[in-house]
């Protein structure tokens, strides 16, 4: 019985190390989304930190600030969704079959 417990603990430690490596790799990735046919581009890293926003000059209309705000929101939300999907795909492999509520 003790041997099985030690073996299980080693496997859990190995899985934890792989999970941490995967998370580190995710944090280093860059994600990009656009809105308005490329008029607004938002880039973020895997930590969900916005690292760049590009706005084409022709979309800047002082009389239509609402449209520009909508484009920025749309691109930002899309890039954050991309990060969530990649995180769930990557980290989900570690919880497959474990049936643990609240885990990815």
From TrEMBL:
Domain of life: Bacteria
Main subcellular location of this protein, as a coarse class: cytoplasm
Self-association and partners: Homodimer.
Function, in words: Binds to DNA and alters its conformation. May be involved in regulation of gene expression, nucleoid organization and DNA protection.
UniProt-listed Gene3D superfamilies: Nucleoid-associated protein YbaB-like domain
Subcellular localization(s) per the UniProt record: Cytoplasm, Nucleoid
Entry protein name: Nucleoid-associated protein MACH08_00280
Encoding gene per record: yaaK
PANTHER family: NUCLEOID-ASSOCIATED PROTEIN YBAB
Transmembrane regions listed in the UniProt entry: none
Disordered: annotated segments: 1-23
Keyword annotations of the record: Cytoplasm, DNA-binding
UniProt lineage: Bacteria, Bacillati, Bacillota, Bacilli, Bacillales
SUPFAM superfamilies reported for this sequence: YbaB-like
């Amino acid at each position: 019985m003790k041997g099985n417990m030690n073996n299980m603990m080693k496997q859990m430690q190995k899985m934890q190390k792989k999970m941490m490596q995967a998370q580190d790799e995710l944090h280093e990735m860059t994600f990009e989304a656009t809105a308005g046919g490329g008029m607004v581009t938002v880039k973020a890293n895997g930590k969900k930190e916005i690292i760049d926003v590009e706005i084409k000059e022709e979309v800047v209309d002082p009389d239509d600030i609402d449209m520009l705000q909508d484009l920025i929101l749309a691109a930002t939300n899309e890039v954050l969704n991309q990060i969530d999907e990649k995180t769930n795909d990557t980290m989900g492999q570690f919880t497959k079959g474990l049936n643990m509520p609240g885990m990815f």
